[in-house]
Amino acid sequence: MDLLNKDTWSGVTLENSIAVSLYLVAFLGICTMVTWLFSIGMARFRYKGWHLVRTGDVISIHHGWMERKSIQIQMKRIQSLRIKELMFGSLYGYASLCMDCVGYSGERSVKLLIPSIRTSELTEVLGRLLPEFQFQTPTRALHRNAKFSIATSVILLLVIGILIGCYFTMWFLTIVPIIYFVYKHISHIYVHTKWEIAANLFILRKASFNQTTVYLLRESIESISTRQSWWQRLFRIYRLEMDSDSPANVREYQMSGVTKEDCDEILRWYKNKNHKS
To answer: What is the model's pLDDT at position 7?
Structure first.
């Protein structure tokens, strides 16, 4: 193959590679901003006239501009509440509230509760609308080895890829700064991913470019399982998975980087319905 021939890469200079990289970053940035602005416009059109009210054990949602829609949801159908903070929206202090409802599957199980709300108003709104979900911020962090287990494997793969690329041309060295950004992103995930058990709720906040906080009712959990790969065994950490009825996104109910003691505590909480925090 020509791509594996050194002569193919010999004409590529460091200046050319830097220029191409800058153009690519600028192009991706512009595409991201245009997509974000377009999504805002579509959201305002789709959720215009959003009205939410709770009567007894029934939540009623009305929305729409050209076509009005009405949704009624019984409280006993709600198994979890999810607070989603998108990358750009979180910069302005906004989030959205979704519910996973039992009896559905896939995306149909997700019911949008509030399309956009200031994070500073979450405590007051949830206290009046959904007192069953005691809003609080999780504080318990993952084990410190969780960051090293992920960072070591990812950075090792990047270094091997760069070394292989440098065999053909040295311009692959321009990718080295990516290692730093990858490490900082992994550190961000580790620092901001938190969990908590509070009375009848399991709370899990998973951070990345977007941040999601899940409030899962204990009676909605069908089973809890723990796993440990050979790589995680080296760092003495576990992966904990919670199964519920038709979750919209299974990954939001999984947590990697907890210790054996943490897993045992969560299992005791799950078995003991009289647990108080």
So the answer is: 52
Binning pLDDT at 50, 70 and 90, where does residue 159 land?
confident
Rounded CA separation 160/73 (Å): 52
* Pairwise CA distance, residues 109 & 114, whole Å: 15
CA distance 132 to 51: 21
What's the CA gap between 262 and 117, in Å, rounded?
Answer: 33
Q: How far is CA 108 from the centre of its chain?
A: 19
Both tokens of 19, joined, read: 């220029």
Total Cβ atoms within 10 A of residue 83? 21
**Angle, CA of 110, 190 and 212, to the nearest 5°:** 15
Q: Is residue 210 a contact partner of residue 233, using CB atoms and an 8 Å limit?
A: no
Name the DSSP class of 248: S
Alpha helices in 10-65 (DSSP H): 14-46
For residue 250, give the nearest of 262, 241, 259, 258 by alpha carbon. Answer: 241
Q: Which residues contact 122 (CB under 8 A, 6 or more apart)?
A: 83, 95, 97, 135
Rounded to whole angstroms, the Cα distance separating 8 from 1 reads 10
CB-neighbour burial class of residue 33 (10 A; exposed 0-12, middle 13-18, buried 19+): exposed
The 51-55 sheet, strands edge to edge: 51-55, 58-63, 69-74
Lowest model confidence (mean pLDDT) among 93-102, 149-158, 221-230: 93-102
Q: What is the pLDDT of residues 58-69, one digit of tens each?
A: 888 887 776 777
For residues 96 and 125, give the distance between their C-alpha atoms in angstroms, rounded to a whole number: 12
Residue pair 214/253 in contact (Cβ under 8 Å)? The answer is yes
The CA R_g of the chain, rounded to the nearest whole Å, is 23
Highest mean pLDDT: which range of 35-49, 125-139, 177-191: 177-191
Mean pLDDT of the chain: 80
